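Lab notebook, bench 4. Still working through the backlog of constructs that have no structural model yet. Next entry is a single chain of 304 residues. Request: give me the C-alpha cells for it.
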Amino acid sequence: MSEAAATRRNRGGLGRGLGALLGDVARDEREATAGGEARASVRMISVGAISPHPEQPRRHFDETKLEELAASIAERGIIQPIVVRPHGHGYQIVAGERRWRAAQRARLHEVPVVVRDYSDSDTLQIALVENIQRQELNAIEEAEAYKRLLGEFGHTQEALAKVVHKSRSHVANLLRLLDLPQTIQSQVVDGSLSMGHARAIITAPDPAALASQVVTKGLSVRQTERLASNGKKRTKAAAPSPAKPAIGDTSSADIAALENQLADLLGLKVRISFTPAGSGTIALDYSTLDQLDMVCQRLSGEGI
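Model written out:
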C-alpha cells in the first residue's frame, strides 16, 4: 500500500477527533454570538487580512442571497463571527466565507473573528463537514466533499454519515452523481437540474439526451424516472438474452436489488452476473484511484 494510503489509514475514522473540532467551532460561534465574557475571544480584523481557503468545497454562491446577506450586514453588522486560523502574514477562513464575501460587498473594513490554531488537515475537514451540515452546498459540491473525506482522509461511509447526520444511502447516492458527464454535473450546480433529476438520469442509457429533455420540456422527477426506466427496458430488449438463471434461483429483480444494496454500501456502481451452474462474478466500477484504494481498504478490513 502507498505511503499516502498508510497515512490515511492511520488517521482512522472521523471518531472523536473531527467531532470535537466541529464542536469547538460551533461552541466558539455560539459563545461569541451570546456576548458576555466569551466576547473576549472575538477580535476585529481587517477584511483585507483574511483570505478564503483555496480548497473550500463551496464553489457556487447564489448572487441574490449574497446581496441579501450583504444588505443585512450593512444594516446590522455581522452577528456570528467568522472562524479563522493564522496563515502567512494574515488569516485564513475555516468557517464563514459567505459572511466574509458579504462583508466585502457591504464595504465593511473590519469583521469579528474567532482565531483558532488548526492544522491544514483539520481546516479542510472542518470546511467540508461544516458546509455539509449547514446544507450550504449543491448536490455536486456535497458529493465532491464526501469523495474527499472518504478517499483523502480514509473515512468510511458509515462514520461519515453519522457525523454529517445523513443516511448512508444518501451519501452513496450522492457519490453516484459524480459518475455523470461533466456537462450534466454543471447543470446540477447551476440549478437547471435538481438532485432528484440527476439521480434518475444516471440510470438512463443516454444520460445526456435525457438531461436535455428534462431542461427543454421542464419534466418532473417522476416523468424523468419513467423515461429512464423505459429507456433501460428498450435497451435490454434490443440486447442478446442473458443466460437464464438456474431453477430455484432468485429473479433478476432480486439481483438488481442486491446490486443496489452493494452500491449504497460502497458508493460505487456494482454489476452481478451469474450462470445456471450457480457461479458468477461481481464487478465494481470506480472512477478514481482514491475510490480503488477505498475498496481495497474495505476488502482487507482496514479503515472499518
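Notes after review: The radius of gyration is 23 Å. The chain has three domains: 3-123, 140-179+250-304, 181-238. Flag for follow-up if needed.
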